[in-house]
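Researcher: Structure for this, please.
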Amino acid sequence: MLNFGTIGSGWITDEYIRGAKDSGLWNLTAVYSRSQTKAQEYAQKHGAKYAFTDVEALAACEELDAVYVASPNAFHYQHCKVLLGHGKHVICEKPLCAQAEKVRELAALAQEKGLVFLEAIMFMHQPQRQALEEALGKIGPISLAKLDFCQRSSKLDGYLAGELPNIFNPQLETGALMDLGVYCVYPALHLFGRPESLQISAHMLKSGADGCGVANLIYPDKLVTLTYSKLGQAGANSDFQGPEGTVAVESISRLGGITLRHKDGATQEIHGQDEKYKLMGWEAKDFYRYITQPEESREEYAHCTQLSMDVAACMEELRRQADILFPSDRKE
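Model: Predicted structure, token format:
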């Protein structure tokens, strides 16, 4: 087993810890929070030996092999750089950084030190992804793909009441594109590569964050449309259309509810739904495999690394076109 620590104490970290432990490959050793009280409470909650309030101290802990980073987006670059600099493998929640240049820098630092630096994106690590790709092969050349992730934010009522939750605060590099749109960009680029061009329309909130948006990724032989929102709840699936049928996906982020619909009307269920911690457990398993079996997983890990850089570049261009700006975009 390898020992890991965490940065962040929200529900997503709870699920990752549960999934990592369930894999039987990881032992939680340390947690980080900004306050000592919360750090100690979180360590006690999950059975961690150490509770830190200083990232440098966490990174220097000799009993840690790796760290899962789930701090607010604006701190990803800083936290990952410190951890990699101290020789720790890192798996960081999406999106890695607002600027592709920073993703490339961190990936280069990890390579220089012989470390694994991985974006925690569920799509890339679910075994049902292969089943999805096989189903797509049965419907012929894709002409149109519609990737959707619209989910009403649990923080929306607070925002409408005059509060400024983190998810609607551009100072923290958040908003609908960064939080949900990335789940649509990832499968588009993994399945079809980088587009020839792209377009975006975004609905901006008074806070300066985007509440929802529509983006088109334009390829020579297909159009991929992305829809994402923090303001409303979608009822439609994502789907991939070809001359022989359609592949519908109820949840593109979780790869849950995959159905193949043939042109003659016959349907075939490809995959159902999984619990969240199980999905994150697959991330933890691949993270472990990339660390402990570097030769066997070299090609797969290299693809993940390149894809994370391509996604960051695509996201940055979409933000530029939509005028979604963060303080870190300003050049000194």
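Researcher: Any notable elements?
Model: DSSP finds ten helices and 14 strands in the chain. The two ends are 44 Å apart (CA to CA).
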